[in-house]
Amino acid sequence: MLKKPNAMLFDLDGTLLDTAKDLGNALNQILTSLGRATVDHQTYRNIASDGAKGMLELGFGDDLKHFEFDILRQQFLDYYENNICIDTDYFEGVEQLLLALNKKHIPWGIVTNKPAFLTTQLITSFPLLQNCAVVISGDTLSERKPHPLPLLYAEQKLALDSPNTWYIGDAQRDIQSANAANMISVIAEYGYISDLNVTDEWDADLSIHTATDLLTYF
User: Fold this and answer.
1) Cα 181 to chain center, whole Å?
2) Which of 11, 18, 22, 50 is flagged as catalytic?
3) pLDDT < 50: residue spans in the chain
4) For 193-211, how does the pLDDT look when each residue is reduced to its tens digit (9 = 90+)?
5) Is 70 assigned a catalytic role?
6) Which among 40, 55, 68, 75 is most buried, taking Cβ atoms within 10 Å?
7) Domain ranges for the chain
8) CATH class of segment(s) 7-18+89-217
C-alpha cells in the first residue's frame, strides 16, 4: 500500500496538458511550406513529448540531414510560440485532480523539459496551473530529465518537512528521473505512449488510466 503523498509533481506535455495538436500544427506548417506531405494526428501524437527535435525527425525522416536543423527548429518554435494554445487543453480529470489537491492543501508543481519561455506561456494560458507551488523547465538548471536534479530541486523548493513526493509523467525519462530522486513514480497511461506494454520495463511504482485515479490515494 502506497503512503499518502504530501506533494505531487507533474510533467506538463502528455500529463497535465494535451499539447499534441498544436505541436503537430507547427510541424505540418513547416512541411507544407516546403511542399512536403503532412503528418496526421495519430502518427505524431505519441512523439509530442519529444519536443521540436522529435517532431522534426518524425516529419522529415532520413531527409532531415539535408536541411539545416537549427533553422527548422527555430521555425518550429516560432510558429508554436505564436500558436501555442489553439488546440491545447487539459487531459480529462486533470482539473478535478488539481482542484482536489488545492482543497486538501497538498502542494504540487510542474517539472518539464519544455523551455521556460514556452512553459510560462502555457501556464499563463491556464489559470488553474498558476496555483502550482513550483515550476522547473528544461533550461532552468544544468540538467534535465531523466537526471533527478530537476525533481530534487523542485522538492527542495516545496520545503517539505518529511518529503513523500510523487511524480507523474508519460515518458520513460519521467520514471527514470523520479526513481533516481527516490520519489514515487507514476505513469500517466493516458499520455503520449505508443505501446503501453513497454511500460512494464520502466520500473514505475504505479500506473494510472486517468488523472482522477490519483484521488484514491489521498
Assistant:
1) 18
2) 11
3) none
4) 999 999 999 999 999 999 9
5) no
6) 55
7) 7-18+89-217, 20-82
8) alpha beta
